[in-house]
Design a protein that fits this description.
Radius of gyration: 15 Å
Mean pLDDT: 87
Number of strands: 7
Low-confidence stretches: none
Distance between the termini: 39 Å
Number of helices: 3
Strand content: 15-25%
């Protein structure tokens, strides 16, 4: 992907689709909650897990090669650069879209801020996935507008 290319927004049906999150911290918890809300079959692989998301299959162990087999989407969100890189490499080799929390260059998609209201869903990212504070401010404004549609 070229340095200045924007990302195309794509909305997909996650219902019943296996989504694997490697990591058990705050980012992993937020990603799991969003994907579960959209009906994904979420598996979290991490020795520890701070999340309390109903229906999530937590496998209390470290990531191992082969863990992404059969996944529709993958998220690498550990605090270990080596593990995140390995998850990204495995996903790309298998043709599985992956977001790597600590390295945008290794992402094949960016996980958006998701806003819902009035029967409308919006997903926001900053232009190059680098300005998370700007995306958060935009998401707050969009949420307020969407909540007004109810």
């Amino acid at each position: 992907m070229t340095e200045n290319a924007s990302r195309f927004p794509l909305f997909v049906d996650l219902t019943g689709r296996r989504c694997v999150i490697v990591g058990g911290g705050a980012i992993a918890q937020r990603r799991a909650a969003v994907m579960a809300r959209f009906g994904a079959a979420v598996t979290v692989i991490a020795p520890t897990w701070i999340g309390d998301v109903p229906g999530v299959d937590w496998q209390a162990r470290p990531y191992a090669p082969g863990d992404l087999k059969g996944a529709f989407l993958a998220v690498a969100a550990t605090d270990d650069r080596t593990v995140n890189r390995q998850v990204g490499e495995e996903a790309r080799a298998l043709g599985i879209p992956v977001t790597v929390a600590d390295c945008r260059e290794e992402c094949t998609f960016f996980f958006p801020a998701v806003c819902e209201g009035g029967g409308v869903t919006a997903g926001l990212i900053s232009r190059h996935g680098t300005d998370h504070h700007r995306a958060a401010r935009a998401a707050k404004a969009v949420r307020q507008v969407l909540e007004g549609l109810d």
